[in-house]
Structures are given as C-alpha cells and as structure tokens.
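Human: Respectfully, please carefully check these tokens:
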Amino acid sequence: MNPSPLFGQMVHRTALLLIVCMSLAPLGVLAQDEPSPIEIELLAPQQAQKGETIDVLIRYDVVDPNANAKINYDVLGPCAIRSRAPEPPDPTVNIWIPTGDSAPGTIRIQVQIDKEATDLQVRHVVKVRWGDKVRTFESDTAVQAVPPTPTAAPVPALPAEGLSSSAVPTLNLVSVGLSHSVSGGGNQEVALQVSYVSTGDLRDVIVTVRFDPDVVNLEEAARAGRSYEIAVPFLPRAPGSRPLFDLPLRGRIRPYQGGGEHYGLQAIVQIVTPDGATRNVPGPIVSQPVGVDQDISVVVQSRVDSEVAPAGRSIIVHVVCENLGQLPVEDLTVRIEGLPEGFVTHPLEQIIDQIAGVGGFEERLFAIRTPGDVEQTVTFRAVVTVDQTVIESEPVTVETALPTSLELELSADKSTVLAGDALTVRVACTNGGYRRAGQLTAKLIDSTGNLGTFLKDLSDIEPGKFQEVVFVIEVPPDFPVDAVSLLRAQLVSEGEALAESAPLSVRVACVPEFEVLLRSPGTRVESGGLVEFAASVRNVSQCTARDIRLSLEGLPDGFPVPPDQEVDELPPGAARNLTFSSVVPDGYQGKSTTVVHLVDRMGTNFWSEPSDLAVGAVSLLFVVGFGLLGVLAFAAATAGFVLFLRQR
C-alpha cells in the first residue's frame, strides 16, 4: 500500500523540524545558564486555527547595552510571516539590534497559519546572541482544525418537476438568537442561530447577516459591504420552528473603541430567495441585544536594579504598565505599597495619562530611601489604580545591608624592576565588617598606564578574615622608557569599588645597550715609550644611560693601569670618544690583547672587541752600543777614503 502524499508531507516536515531543533540545541547550551544581556518576554497564542493570522509579541529590555546583543526570531511549522513592526535593519532576516535608548520595547510579528496545515504545532523561537553566546526562548501554538462550515440540513431529493405558482411555500423567520462567551480584552466569541418556518421546501436561499455595531468577523462567511452572506442550497419544509443552521454561526468581536468598556450588540438577519421562487420574502428580524465587555487588561511589572541595596542609599524601582487590551487606558495612578516604617518613597505616587491599546506601555521610576543603620529584608509591590480597578505587580524583595568594611594593603617584591623581568605584587584583603563580603574582584591598576590593569576573582571573605591575591606582572623586554609606575589596588563588587589601597611606586627601568669600540695604537711600540688606546662608546637603546664607567683591561704586568673613564649621562643614539694612556716598561717585549670594559649603574656589563698591542725590547745600553758602532764604522770609512786619496 503506497503512502498518501499528505502522509509523506507530514513526515518530511516533521523530519525537517527535528533536524532544525537538533542543530539549534548545541547553540542554546552555550549560554542558557548565563544571564541574558536582553530580558525577553515571548507572547504567542496558545491555540490558532488553520488559515488564521496571529500576533506574536517579543517584549524586550536591554540589561547590558555594552554586550551588543541581537534578537533573532524564527518560526517552525506550517506558517508564514506576514508583517514585522518595527522592520529589522536587514529586511531579509528577522534580526533586531536594540540599544539602551530604544529599550524597553516590543516587536510585533504577524504569522499566518497555512490553511492546509497538516502539522499540529507551530514553534516560536527567539534567540539572544552576544559574542559566541546564545540564550533561547521558545513558545508553542497548537494548530486546531477549522470547525465545520455552518450549512443547512442535507438536501433531500427534489420533485422532478418544479413548483407551480399556486404551490409556492410560505417562508418566515421566527427568531434570531445572539450569544457570546466572554474571553476578555474585547476578543470575544459570538454565536448566531436563526429559526424559521416554511410550508414547503426551498432551494438557493441567501441569508444576510448584519451586526450593529459592525464589530464581528464571521468565520467562513463571505462579506458583502457591511453584511455577510451565507448561501443555503436547500431549506426543508418546517411546519414548526426549525434551526436554519445545523451549527451556530461563530465569529469574533473586534475591538470597538467607540463602545467603551460595555456596549450592546445586535444581529439583523434577512432571508433572500431567488426571483420568482416565492412571493413572500420576509423582512429582517433583529435579535435582542447582548452586552459586550471590553475589560481593562493592564499588566504591572516591577523590578529593581539590585536585590541587595546598601543601607542609607536609595533603591531604584522600575514600574512598567502594559496594556494588553484593545482600548486605550486613561488616568492610571501608580504607587509603591508594603514598605516598612523608615522607608520613604519619592515620589509618593505618579499619574499616567494614557496607555495605548494592544501592547502599549509606560514606565515610571521610584526611589526608595532606606534607613542607614539597619539590615533587613523588605518586600513591596507596585499598585496601579484605574477607575475602581486595583492592579498589583508581583512582590519584589530587596535586602538592605550595612556597607562592608574592607581594607587593602599593597606590597611588591622590588622597588625597581628591569624590562624583561617579572614584578610580584601582593594584595592583602581584610574584612573588618560584620557581614560576609562576596562576589569580589581584585583589580590592580597602574595609574600611569605603563603596565596596564589586572583582575583576579576572590572567594567570599567572612567577617574578620584575611585573603591574599598575588599578581605576577611580566614587564616587556622592549619596554621603551625609564619610568615610575604608580600602582593601586581596588576591591570591586558588581561594578562598584568597595575599597582602595594606598598607592605604591615601582620604578620600571629600561635596560640600556651599548656599542663599545677599541682601536689599536697602530705602530710598533718600544720599551719605555708612551702608548695610547683610543676608545668610543655609543648608546644604541631607546633610554638614557647614566653613571657609565669604562676601564681598560688586559694590559701585561708592569704596565701602569690607566684610570677609569666616567660618563655621567649618555642619551639614546649619542656617542663619546675616550683615550686611555700607559707606558711600556723597560725591557718588555711581546704581544698583548686589551679590551675596554663598560659597567652602567644597573650593573650591566659590556666589552669591546679585543685589540692587539706589539712591543719590541729596546734598552738604553743597546742604543748606546749601537751608536758607538755606528761612529766606529763612520771613522773607518773616512780613514779608508783618505788612504785611497794618498795612494793616488
């Protein structure tokens, strides 16, 4: 047996719905336990009929405007979105980005259920997304089958030949009954039944129905002007009073602003037969009026900024009045009730002139001044009076607490830290108050901005107890300047600073770098002679170097050691030329290697490249002997030359 197309369509849609739900499920887990930066109230009808258009309301309030959260709406099931108010920034997607200025607010979405819907449920899904986190809100609307169309009784077999003019039946309306069931807010259901008498059978009868005032939408009935027309193919003979319809005609009453809270509704019914079918067309019959109540439907919500308020300070109460009814509501009085003695509300009451219907709302703020010397738990509620109706919000509970006495002491393992080194800072937190301090965060702040800000969470600190937090700060190796950082610690709870330490100064030193050069004397130096070493030093770092000392090292024994050279300050990129002088001792000969050694005030060492020095051993006796030998050689040469001249 092959499955019907209807069954295949239902299976396909069910599988698609399961796939979508399974793909969305992991996203919702990411942030379901975290508070949403946007408070959401999703309102959707619990039931709807096939082909019906329903309103879905998304009420929101921005709790954290810095989260840049988005609202995304999606609907799953046999339906289509018809309108959105307000329209999203990108009309191709259902994503709204509310801001603190636009909150609180309401997003209205009209959804039409498919007339041929086979699924029994429509799911509304609202997701709040911020960063990589998601919070999901869902609501379901059950889809009901459309009730049977009111029709006349089954058409029996008609005589083969038509009625003669002498046998035309007489048709009269007997009564018109109108009833309704109150469901509140002006959205009431109305039921209409008509009774008639007829001396014979009739075909192709048209029943016209008009309501006064014109506020009723009849289901499955064609509208013609201000009236509705129902085609009745056959009316059987009715010697006695008989219902015109097997089931009453049903409709819904629209909001009627001209009717106030209570007004009367009538139905005017007439039967129209085809031309020539009867000579007795009855006139219209008017039903007895029924009362319609358009009840006030105002919802009052109250909330506070914090459930714990410091004693002696004010509790800020937000009271939101929303009109869920169809009519505007005027002259509402709002006040706070249930406060114990010593708590003062400002102002005592506030007046709301008007709240528009269908989701209109107004917000009022109250400040409750708390006593400064007592800790207690108070419960109160917002009370709204309109006409003689009193509407109360859900109770709100706030704990007033004396401020905690927290003390901070700041210490560091060193007063000067070098670039590339680590600085250990300890923050000692002591609770000197009478109540536990919780939800604490230690904040270490560099007021100069050189090192930044560091945060660490603390566990609760009981009264009289102590807790220590350790911060290890890594100073970047390329720290550009030689500066003093001013550190201070804070204890923060829910964004409010509860305690602050005295400032602590820490010097962050930049490590200078140098280029040291040593040039060799160049010529061969002999014993007893003066030798000079030319050196230069250049600051190749980004910070100023101070208290630089340079010394010549590597001279052989017997060489007088030249005094150290000092440079008080050497800015970045600057260079200084230096000369070291010494004397070669008599009788010394050989080769030596010397270097220049640099030490700055932070103990940093630098050396130049080695330089060679060659020394020859030339003594005074050698010089005198060499000189006499030269004289003798000159004398011998002179004597030989004279003898040569004489012989000639």
